[in-house]
Amino acid sequence: MKKIMIADDDPGIVDAVEIMLDFEGYEVSSTVNGATLLDMQTEFPDLLLLDIWMSGFDGRDICRKLKQKKNTKGIPIIMISASRDIERSAYEAGADDFLAKPFEITDLLGKIKKHLKEN
């Protein structure tokens, strides 16, 4: 079973996405704290859904740091944001994909399947 971690400080989005991914057969975990991602030592997810604007953290900084660490650089990161204007900066930070809020669950599932097949 593939593990997906959701990092978003919006509980409504986390709950909705968690329910859908669970229904699709993924093992899902979530955090509202960006520091949690940087402290990971074991139990890495197979894919990370990362919000760009999290309270106290810029998801792009977290993405850059994860892509620089040996044990997390291979984890596909799909960045999510309500602002379409920062898509380019998400890719510049090392994101593997980008999704603008609000998004269709089918679009999210398609991106997840694509990145999990590649890895």
UniProtKB/TrEMBL annotation:
User: What InterPro entries would the database entry show?
Assistant: Bact_response_regulator, CheY-like_superfamily, Sig_transdc_resp-reg_receiver
Which domain of life does the UniProt lineage start with?
Bacteria
Family matches, as Pfam families: Response_reg
Q: Which positions bear 4-aspartylphosphate? A: D51
Residue runs in coiled coils: none
Q: Which UniProt keywords apply?
A: Phosphoprotein
Q: Which residues form the Response regulatory domain?
A: 3-116
PROSITE patterns, per database record: RESPONSE_REGULATORY
Spell out the SMART domains in the cross-references.
Answer: REC
Protein's name according to its UniProt entry: Response regulator
